[in-house]
Amino acid sequence: MQPSFAPITAHGGRDYPTGYSLMNNGLLNKGTAYTDAERDALGLRGLLPARIFPIEQQVKRALGNLRAKNSDLNKYIFLNALQNRNETLYYRVVLDHLEEMMPIVYTPTVGQACLEYGAIFRRPRGLWITMKDRGRVAEVLANWPIQDVRLIVVTDGERILGLGDLGALGMGIPIGKLALYTACAGVNPYYCLPITLDVGTDNPSLLDDEMYIGIDQRRTRGEEYREFIEEFVQAVEARYPRCLLQFEDFGNHNAFDLLARYRDRVCSFNDDIQGTASVALAGLLSASRLQGMRLADQKLLFFGAGEAATGIGELFVAALRDEGLSEAEARAKCWFFDSKGLIVMSRDKLPANKRAFAQNVEPTDDFLAAVKQLRPSALIGAAGVAAVFTQEVVEAMAQSHSRPIIFALSNPTSKAECTAEQAYTWSKGTAIFASGSPFPAFEYEGRTLVSGQGNNVYIFPGVGMGVLASASSVVTDSMFLAAARELAAMVTEEELAVGRVFPTLTNIRAVSLRIATAVARIAHDSGYARVPRPADIEADIKQRMFEPEYPSYV
After folding, report:
1. Measured over all CA atoms, what is the biggest interatomic distance in the chain, rounded to whole angstroms?
2. Which of 7, 133, 444, 512 is the most exposed place for a label (fewest CB within 10 A)?
């Protein structure tokens, strides 16, 4: 699966582009690192300053420029420009300084970047396919210069993080996700294609903005929307038959519908539903270790009942069934509270994803009362409603359990249900806390508490790498269940001791390799793999992983 650099060139073989063409190819460019021999052979003499800088010095220079920026958004713009002109250097910087770069490359800064994507747009990266392209989607797809795409992250921009409908501005999400595939799991950027399906927007501020970069119409919905998606999927299948398609940040109804329609037909998954579920389940497994409890002894109360929340619930149910509980027993452990209150059987017109978790109790629209009544061991926020885990709610959790689990998973930081400091302070240091966006370590009565970031980056890159390495025809829930278990197993006792329920991000490549190996093994064992089984799956995947190192051109 790992390409040499030769297929990236315009002429095939090892006939590399030369001069400006070479330096303007971000996948091939080495900047000031070209040797004297390369400069002579490739027509670069005089186009670069005389001194040769190896990648280590280039990284140092890039970090100095980056850290001099006065805002995270300006740092994002700098890194985006670096990625466009020199992908190898970009990934070297990101991979070697992952904990510093992650909040810039993705959450929380990517949210602000999406809000301002039209203003900061510099150079095209990926494809926008619009409703006006109906009937010729395949033609638009063919404009992408790489003919062996293996991984597409696609959004229609309707539910960007917790920010809502951003339409065409949502392109920052697939770009960011694919960057994490490369940095965290070693998927070669050559194979990656970010796509935004621009079907309009229902955001009035965008429709009224003369500088908005998307099509000027309200969102297309219904049968016309489904036909457009079908045309897109068929075009992808025809042009890129071995491609993994990741649906990202679609609205709730469309997200569930697309997953149901395509999961068994094409190699695809929805990260908001399945990836979030996997990372949250891993957090619950780790938290159970801290509590000294079995997973089956947990009782979950979700604030929110959309893609993320019910996806977590479904995978949690699957995990409990593996532990011997019946379907009914497992579902009885999951309680959901949405904008109308506790989800109960007596409520009319529940969508299927909510109806599966409706409980036979009296309704209530008082969240604090529900917490006190149900006495859950874990509180999981995934609705994008800020500050809903109030002091009274956290104190009620602490009164019911000696180590309450508080997962404030909504992104970006401004949408978090509570902060790490609030969870620790209000619970008197007993909470097991994780969040969607990062929070700094917190000192409480002489103890340093380090919260976990329940970031999908722990899951989707490894899952995707395992799927690509095995050329699996489908992505199954069993793969996400295995990924959650592998992730939880990598949390050390030392990490648990300070409150972490996920490994440190510096270990992300090892985490991704372990998850990819488990996923590829499932693909081979289940008959989904479309390539022969290697003698050593882990070694096979490891040698495929992209390393940001310059090739020699002579």
Report:
1. 79
2. 7
Closest CA to 156 of 196, 114, 207: 196
Residue 434: name the closest of 459, 407, 456 by CA: 407
For the chain, give the percent of residues with pLDDT over 90.
90
Domain boundaries, the chain: 54-266, 274-456
The answer to whether 177 is a known catalytic residue is yes
Written as one string, the DSSP assignment of 174-243 is HHHHHHHHHHHH---GGGEEEEEEE-----HHHHT-TT--S-SSPPP-HHHHHHHHHHHHHHHHHH-TT-
88 vs 94, 365, 517, 546, CA distance in Å?
Answer: 10, 52, 25, 10
Q: pTM for the full model? A: 0.93
| Distance from C-alpha of 122 to C-alpha of 118, rounded to nearest angstrom | 9
Residue keyed to tokens 């009319």: 348
SS3 127: strand
In angstroms, rounded to a whole number, what is the distance separating the alpha carbons of residues 474 and 519? 11
**Tokens matching residue 498:** 């300070």
Give me the catalytic one of 30, 75, 177, 415.
Answer: 177
Give the separation between CA 401 and CA 86, rounded to whole angstroms: 51
Identify the CATH number of the domain defined by range 54-266: 3.40.50.10380
Beta-carbon count within 10 A of 73 CB: 18
CB atoms within 10 A of CB 547: 12
Helix or strand holding residue 303 (H, E): strand 300-303
**What pLDDT does 458 receive?**
97
Q: Are strands 192-198 and 151-155 parallel, antiparallel or unpaired?
A: parallel
Q: Do domains 54-266 and 274-456 have the same CATH topology?
A: yes
Burial annotation 375-397 (CB, 10 A radius, 16+ → b, else e): ebbbbbbbbbbbebbbeebbbbb
Q: What is the pLDDT of residues 356-371, one digit of tens each?
A: 999 999 999 999 999 9
Residues forming a β-bridge with 196 = 128, 155
Catalytic residue among 76, 90, 106, 191: 106
| Residues sharing a CB contact under 8 Å with residue 198, sequence separation 6 or more, in sequence order | 128, 129, 130, 131, 156, 157, 167, 168, 214, 215
Architecture of domain 274-456: 3-Layer(aba) Sandwich (3.40)
Beta-strand pair 334-338/192-198: unpaired
What is d(CA 145, CA 161) in angstroms, rounded to the nearest whole number? 30
Task: Give the helix ranges, DSSP H, for 411-507.
Answer: 420-426, 460-470, 477-489, 493-497
Asked if 372 is an active-site residue, the reply is no
pLDDT band at 11 (very low <50, low <70, confident <90, very high): very low
Give the span between the Cα atoms of 178 and 93, in whole angstroms: 16
Give 64-106 pLDDT, tens digit per residue.
Answer: 999 999 999 999 999 999 999 999 999 999 999 999 999 999 8
| Helix (H/G/I), strand (E/B), else coil: 442 | strand
Label the pairing between strands 447-449 and 300-303: unpaired
Residue-by-residue DSSP string for 49-78 = -S----HHHHHHHHHHHHHT-SSHHHHHHH
